[in-house]
Structure to design on (457 residues):
């Protein structure tokens, strides 16, 4: 399988199975419309007839020779060697937990998938006892894996910051006993952030996620305090100070776009203009009937935004003021392991979420959904939880007809199971608009890498 696209004057051909990416001239790009496999390249007459009067015979034959050589080198029309790995996941191994340290929040974001922090239940905070039990569960369930991850999530984790510190301290003692290392991450809306918290975060958190949507008007329309006041002026100075204190590394300022700001590239540029170097702005997690959710008819406008953002990023890099945009960051030289390429984030198997009462769920977005309750950190994974885990283990790109035929399958791993569930009612039916956005982001990422390979900034 190959995929080809053009962007800003570049013609790109991707060989999906080998991972090879080629920048080609226009004749080679157009000739490939007439080839579905390596054997098609041997019938020169088809190409000579199709492009007579468009390109010279010498140009056509020269292009065909180069394409045949790429195919013979295994970099074009290569075979699929990955299907027999489908279904291979971490088994009973858990490598990451998302601790819902607080099912409460001091903001009332209109698009919040977490029910304004409460996850459609009672507002509550995780006790240190439950957090410690979660650490014990992770250390035991991680089997031989040494590098582990724990994310402090909410709601708003800083509402329960003493528990965060207690859990981290306990984990540091326990990980030494197991010969393991836990990397911590914390996500915050910044309202309560102060210098002492920043100092602690910098000392103990490998990464930190800062929630803000970009331009003041955009942010304040969606991200309001309990009194209805916008949060931009409260949080942005704190976020800038924290990002600078981390030397603009090991953090993300993470925004959400909705139908209210389909011009989200302007929000990314705003954040970059403020000096943030690590930026992620993503579509809202929403149900099919939510008015703020981007719709299928919005895709052309959103595609244009991603392309404009890619061009802007290239331009700024050339000017020496570049930044990283999360969805454009793809490692084309190494990248993730085969299993991750086929299965995605590991939700429900290697990655689990823990609610304040210690209940286990497949991921942070599905926390509190009764159908996805998998047990608890006190009693382990239940019989129902094992069946849920089996269902998620079977969720790979070859098990979904839409994914199996998609050129982007090895880059997205089948997409987000939670988004699929909220949109279609099941985890095995990909969310089509999300798939479209993913494909466009991948094209933009490949385009940026192609531009980098041809430029010295």
């Amino acid at each position: 399988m190959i995929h080809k696209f053009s962007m800003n004057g570049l013609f790109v051909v991707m060989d999906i199975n080998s991972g090879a990416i080629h920048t080609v001239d226009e004749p080679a790009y157009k000739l490939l419309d007439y080839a579905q496999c390596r054997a098609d390249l041997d019938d020169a007459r088809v190409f000579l007839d199709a492009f007579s009067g468009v390109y010279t015979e010498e140009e056509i034959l020269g292009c065909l020779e180069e394409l045949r050589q790429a195919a013979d080198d295994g970099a074009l029309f290569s075979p699929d060697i990955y299907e027999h790995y489908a279904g291979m996941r971490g088994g009973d191994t858990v490598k990451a937990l998302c601790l819902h340290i607080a099912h409460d929040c001091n903001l009332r974001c209109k698009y919040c998938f977490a029910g304004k922090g409460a996850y459609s239940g009672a507002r509550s905070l995780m006790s240190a006892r439950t957090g410690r039990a979660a650490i014990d569960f992770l250390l035991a369930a991680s089997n031989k894996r040494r590098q582990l991850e724990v994310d402090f999530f909410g709601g708003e984790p800083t509402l329960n910051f003493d528990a965060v510190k207690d859990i981290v301290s306990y984990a540091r003692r326990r990980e030494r006993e197991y010969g393991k290392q836990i990397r911590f991450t914390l996500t915050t809306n910044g309202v309560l952030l102060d210098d002492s918290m920043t100092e602690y975060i910098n000392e103990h958190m490998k990464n930190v996620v800062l929630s803000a949507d970009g331009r003041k008007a955009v942010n304040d329309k969606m991200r309001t305090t309990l009194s209805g006041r916008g949060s931009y002026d409260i949080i942005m100075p704190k976020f800038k100070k924290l990002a600078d204190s981390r030397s603009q590394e090991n953090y993300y300022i993470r925004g959400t776009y909705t139908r209210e700001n389909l011009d989200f590239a302007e929000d990314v540029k705003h954040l970059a203009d403020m000096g943030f170097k690590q930026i992620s702005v993503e579509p809202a997690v929403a149900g099919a009937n939510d008015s703020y959710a981007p719709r299928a008819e919005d895709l052309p406008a959103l595609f244009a935004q991603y392309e404009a953002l890619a061009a802007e990023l290239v331009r700024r890099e050339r000017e020496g003021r570049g930044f990283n945009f999360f969805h454009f960051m793809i490692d084309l030289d190494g990248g993730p392991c085969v299993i991750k390429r086929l299965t995605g984030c590991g939700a429900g198997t290697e990655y689990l979420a823990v609610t304040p009462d210690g209940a286990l769920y497949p991921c942070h977005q599905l926390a509190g959904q009764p159908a996805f309750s998998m047990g608890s950190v006190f009693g382990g994974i239940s019989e129902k939880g094992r069946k849920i885990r089996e269902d998620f283990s079977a969720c790979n790109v070859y098990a979904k007809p839409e994914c199996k035929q998609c050129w982007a399958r090895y880059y997205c791993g089948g997409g987000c199971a939670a988004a699929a569930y909220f949109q279609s009612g099941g985890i095995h039916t990909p969310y089509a608009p999300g798939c479209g956005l993913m494909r466009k982001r991948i094209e933009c990422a490949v385009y940026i890498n192609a531009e980098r390979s041809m430029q010295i900034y």
Summary: The chain has two domains: 2-81, 86-457. The longest helix spans residues 432-454. The chain has 16 helices and 16 strands. The mean pLDDT is 92.
